[in-house]
Design goal:
With about 400 residues, the chain is of the alpha/beta class. The protein has helices spanning about 25-35, 75-85, 115-130, 175-180, 200-210, 245-265, 345-355, 355-375, 385-395; strands at about 10-20, 40-45, 60, 110-115, 135, 140-145, 150-155, 160-170, 185-190, 195-200, 220-225, 270-275, 285-290, 305-310, 320-325, 335.
Length: about 400
């Protein structure tokens, strides 16, 4: 294969304590968390809206944050952002959970749908109000490495190629792009045939008018209706890796063509496609090969280095803890990853990648980065007891109560 060699001088634009690459829900949580813990923080986002899959990806759902019987499991910024998503938007917080955890047991789960666009704007204000420096339309092009230490990030933007130095780097790209390019071992996943848009047909307009609930106006249009376990996957469409420009293009063009086929015989004056995902709705592209990989059989297991308890969004009563080691790799002193890039395999990866656990790992990464800077420690080797103390102070449930484990 042909290659070229480029020798260029890049301006050092600024220096930060923490740089967060990627402005999805995990990234914004990481950035605000680091800032609240005293770090000068820069958040880099390649699009013009924050929220990632939760907003521009149209996956506008806080999955259940409780055990299925009225006990809340996930707290901290996940709770804060769920409430923020409902501040100026329609919402679907169940009546039982409007004022917090119910006084009596209930089978109604604590979940919430929201307007993606309004939530994205709320996130921008939330980040700026926290004092985080934010750059939109700014691609994290390359980590600059000295051995296994990352000096900072080269960016591509309207300003050209620039370099930002940092003490700690948090990879919130959703695809482990930064840690992968830094040489951290990573693992690729496979993605099913999922793609949908939001449309407004006349029928749902009438429904919304009757119910008085604006979200009833939307109808999902899309050719991909494969469930979590692959049921409905077309035999003639291969699974998607989503880790190359060719793969992403194949995904987008395949589904856009099929969407046109689906609406070909509609009456144009009776429906409108109002918003489309501006990022691939892929969920398990690439993740860190961490110092520990969470597995489905780790349900109900306590970890000494747990950084938070989470629940299963599909199955009631199933509880997990996230080990800090699933976010780091020994030897890479100032790199950590969050969200759907945390080390999980099989169904455990599905449990980790959804909105509430993604926010939780982002918040933890911000706390850990601040602690590592304060103690002149590497990220994989921060003092777990001190990290856990700060996590508890943030209101996060560190270990689930064994009384919640079913017989």
């Amino acid at each position: 294969m042909k290659s070229i060699q480029i020798n260029e001088t890049i301006q050092v634009k600024d220096c930060y304590d923490v740089i967060v690459a990627g402005g999805g829900v995990a990234g914004v949580a990481a950035a605000v968390s680091a800032r609240r813990n005293g770090c000068r923080t820069l958040l880099l986002e390649k699009t013009n809206l924050l929220g990632g899959l939760a907003t521009i990806g149209l996956v506008n759902l806080f999955v259940p944050m409780c055990n299925g019987h009225g006990k809340q499991i996930i707290f901290g910024m996940a709770e804060e952002l769920l409430r923020l998503s409902a501040k100026h938007s329609y919402h679907t917080i169940p009546e039982e959970w409007i004022d917090g955890e119910p006084q009596k047991p209930t089978n109604v789960r604590y979940t919430q749908r929201f307007c993606p666009q309004i939530f994205a704007v709320e996130l921008t204000k939330w980040v700026l109000d926290a004092g985080v420096d934010l750059l939109f339309d700014c691609i994290c092009s390359q980590p600059v490495m000295e051995g296994k230490h990352c000096r900072g990030i080269i960016t591509e933007s309207k300003s050209g190629r620039e370099f930002y130095e940092a003490g700690m780097i948090i990879d919130a790209t959703g695809d482990a792009d930064i840690i992968h390019r830094a040489g951290v071992p990573t693992i690729e996943g496979d993605n099913f045939f999922t793609y949908y848009t939001f449309g407004v047909p006349l029928a749902t307009c009438r429904k919304a008018s009757a119910t008085g609930f604006i979200s009833d106006i939307y109808k999902r249009y899309g050719p991909g209706h494969v469930n979590l376990y692959g049921k409905g996957q077309p035999k003639d469409i291969p699974l998607f890796k989503g880790t190359s420009v060719e793969e992403v293009t194949r995904y987008v063009t395949t589904f856009q063509k099929l969407l046109l086929d689906m609406i070909e015989y509609d009456i144009p004056y009776e429906r409108e496609i109002v918003t489309m995902p501006t990022m691939p709705q892929l969920r398990t592209t690439r993740r860190i090969d961490g110092d520990y990989t969470l597995k489905a059989e780790d349900a109900y297991r306590h970890f000494d280095d747990s950084v938070g308890a989470i629940c299963d969004f599909e199955r009631r009563d199933y509880l997990y803890e996230i080990p800090y080691r699933s976010m780091t790799r020994i030897g890479f002193d100032n790199l950590v990853t969050v969200g759907r890039c945390v080390a999980g395999e099989g169904y455990a990866w599905d449990v980790l990648r959804v909105i509430p656990p993604a926010i939780l790992t982002g918040e933890v990464a911000g706390i850990a980065s601040a602690l590592a800077l304060e103690r002149c420690s590497s990220l994989p080797e921060v003092m777990i007891s001190e990290l856990q103390k700060r996590i508890l102070q943030a209101g996060i449930m560190l270990h689930f109560d064994d009384n919640l484990v079913p017989d």
